[in-house]
UniProtKB/TrEMBL annotation:
Name by which UniProt lists this protein: Unannotated protein
PANTHER family according to UniProt: POTASSIUM TRANSPORTER KIMA
Amino acid sequence: MLVGSVNKGVLQAVKYAESLRPDRLLALSVVESPEARAKLDADWAKHNLTVDLEMINDEFRDITDSVMTRINQLDDEASDDIITVIIPEFVTSLRSQWLHNQSALSIKARLLYRPNTVVTSVPIVIK
């Protein structure tokens, strides 16, 4: 499950991910600084989330490559398993939709043809 911050959509995504009853559940975030890491860690603890949170340091916040590298590592660890990637996505008005979710779209495009991989979007409606 991909996480940028703890918000309503991420909390919904956590509930959904837990409902799948996976053998392993991991929340993954790409952070650009120790301050961002500390804030996300504190927010995660504040909401008493029991899902393991793994943070990847990348000062340039190259989210797509960092996420793909980690997914490939996870696949190498259990190559017979199917990996489900859960992506919370903002749903906005049609006019502003292109402003949001650029990282999510990039990751989804890269995962589309990846074997043994399922991508699930959890919508976050913005009014």
